[in-house]
Sequence to fold (201 residues):
Amino acid sequence: MPPRQPWAFELLAHHDGSYMLGDATFKPPPPLTDWRFGSPGHPHPATCATCGAKVDKTFVAAHFRVNKRRRDITATYDGYTLVSARLRDTLLRHGATPEDFRALPADPAYWWLSPQQVLDFSAAKRNNPCRACGEYFDEVVPEPRFLERLAGPLSMGVYRSSLEFGSVPLKGTALVIGVDTAQALRDASLTGLILDPLRCP
Ligand SMILES: [Zn+2]
Fold:
């Protein structure tokens, strides 16, 4: 049997080689073996002081600028996907709203793509919930549960997963777009664009 038609696409990007939360990091005292944003005694203000997870979900750094500036889409190691004006305009014509993009104070050529609409995901593996903030330290193997409830291809627009995936402090949401939105991006010949088809199980 030929593979089923995709009903949605995950929108992915190559790493930008940068961190929205900055380059200052530290190791908490043993027996902990992870690393965190901030400096000893001064965890980054957007993170949980107990586990280091990002808890301020709207944080944008005042001085952040995109590294890979020839790209239309690029992603920080800590879960931010940044898009060019061309990519943003294409999304706005195909289902996105202005509220799906946050301006970068120091970089007017790019926007943080942070969709308002949420799709139901689960994680096949989640370990070590934090007693202070409730975030799971590891939350991996995304399962796009919303596909089971769709009657047809996902509508135009941009969406984010209900969970953040990865391991603290580098977790981030998955980004999903509708089939027609994905076609519009493909037609726009954008640099750095990666589309991963999602098919109904
Ligand atoms: Zn925590």
